Amino acid sequence: MPTRKQEKVVSLKDITVACQACSLNEICLPVGIENKDMERLDAIIDRKRPLARGEHLFRIGDRFRSLYAVRSGSLKTYATSEDGQEQIMGFHLPGELVGLDAIANDVHPLAAKALETTSICEIPFDSFESLSNQLPSLQRQMLRVMSQEIHNDEQNMLTLGQRSAEERLAAFLISLSNRYRRRGFSSTQFNLTMSRGDIGNYLGLALETVSRLFTRFQNEGLLKVERRNIELIDRQRLCHFSSANCYGDNPDNT
Amino acid sequence: MPTRKQEKVVSLKDITVACQACSLNEICLPVGIENKDMERLDAIIDRKRPLARGEHLFRIGDRFRSLYAVRSGSLKTYATSEDGQEQIMGFHLPGELVGLDAIANDVHPLAAKALETTSICEIPFDSFESLSNQLPSLQRQMLRVMSQEIHNDEQNMLTLGQRSAEERLAAFLISLSNRYRRRGFSSTQFNLTMSRGDIGNYLGLALETVSRLFTRFQNEGLLKVERRNIELIDRQRLCHFSSANCYGDNPDNT
DNA sequence: CGATGACTTGACTGCTGTCAACGTGCGTGG
DNA sequence: CCACGCACGTTGACAGCAGTCAAGTCATCG
User: What is the rounded (10 degree) CA torsion for A16, A17, A19, A24?
Assistant: First the structure.
């Protein structure tokens, strides 16, 4: 029963897009699911009002009940150490699932927070499990998604373990670029939804280092940066800097 | 048709231990599976001759056909960069699954190599998938295992991104200690199956740094080290050094 | 218009990598 | 059984990348 009040704030369209009509269904959980089965998946999915910037989707220690898919906007997931410091583990764009790490112990080990106004599809896990018991293609896709996530995390470990600050930032930008392209956005011009501090935190660098590198990359003609707005000028060379394959096999690489 | 020749080299017992009789079935894939179902899982598992030290279980780019569980011994998994350098992504002890990152793209993104004589259970993925379509408890356990793997990788990202050399090595030793304890081995005295170079590579440190830290930890009375043999003297303090929770919730943490 | 948070830039320091030499144990072959 | 070679490990000297501290600029919002 959507109220008139909600309609004023949020377009009804945003709330009611079904998986079948969602532009993300080629990169989200429904990949490889037949239309009639997609309806059944769609039926268990819960679409709530969007999160405002800074709002939490879930917090560390929350009981695990659902997986979540980003429909629009972006999230960061992070852990906190004893002294309250946050460590960002990932940024999540539309079509990406969050909460996969909570299945094992029925508790969210990370918190998820909106970086901007963000719409979410909630997938209650009990229903999802029952459904995937009936739909082998869904089960298969779930394993693929989780496997891809493991693969991405491994790539990140490599970046954090071995790369210089310059390589890390270049790899980060190329990864974002690839992910935006996959979603139909420009791969050379986009807005960062996270702060310099967030980027540095995620990459294991001081925010000052990130800032200096942006300046240097700009001076070297690799990109143009103004506040949160990025334009990749020499994607090829940036790519080379990152010591990574840039049109690689893992499309959702972070 | 096992030949007499094989029997000379490998004890038959090592080869034929079924899941039901395996001491690892409380930490491996069969967790939470009923006995009659475990038999069905057991039936699809292939137990081969052990790998010798240095032998590959699979290589980068190999077509994905099976998951593997370590039965005894240990493995390392690694990627190689364009210039042929290897980057170690994990060490794998008995009861741990490898190859989970290959499901997504049907190709192994990492290679797996035995660090010592190592026995393996091979789990053909097609058979496994069919079976788990019939056994919800198996499917559930598989999701848990993969979720745990994602969680562990996140922990590693944290270690690599934020910790000092000292903290990384301490965390590594504590993690090994926990994993050995879980498997019924001593948590204070064990042999490293990997070289200093391997440890450094894995932790994103120079092997010289690892060596220096071992010496320093020993001088500070935290542990005793002689070649590959480690004895943790002051586990508590080492734990504190690692800036991590040491009896934490993720038992298979790397 | 002032306050606040985000970002930039500079100076300095220190951790950790690199290069190099040396020690040690193990396995192979004589 | 011994000697040699080799891989592994230790230790020292030095340098450089990136962190920390600090000051200053800029944009946004109340």
Answer: -140
Chain mean position to CA B196: 17
CA B30 to C1' D14, in angstroms, rounded, equals: 54
Q: Which nucleotide is nearest to A195 (CA to C1')?
A: C6
Residues of chain A with CATH 1.10.10.10: 163-242
Q: What tens digit of pLDDT does each residue of B147-176 get?
A: 999 999 999 998 888 899 999 999 999 999
Q: Which fold has domain A14-149?
A: Jelly Rolls (2.60.120)
Distance CA A52, CA B66 (A): 44
CATH 2.60.120.10-classified regions of chain B: 14-149
Whether B146 has its CB under 8 Å from any CB of chain A: the answer is yes
Cα-Cα-Cα-Cα dihedral sign, residues A62, A68, A71, A73:
positive
List the single residue in A82, A143, A154 with the smallest CB-CB distance to B110: A154
Task: Evaluate if the CB of A122 falls below 7 Å from strand D.
Answer: no
Measured CA distances, A71 to A74, A97, A137, A181, B233 (Å) = 9, 10, 22, 16, 51
Spell out the CATH class of B163-242. mainly alpha
Token couple for A58: 């879930």
Q: Is the CB of B122 under 7 A from strand C?
A: no
Element (DSSP H or E) covering residue B47: strand B46-47
User: pLDDT for B185-213, tens place per residue?
Assistant: 999 999 999 999 999 999 999 999 999 99
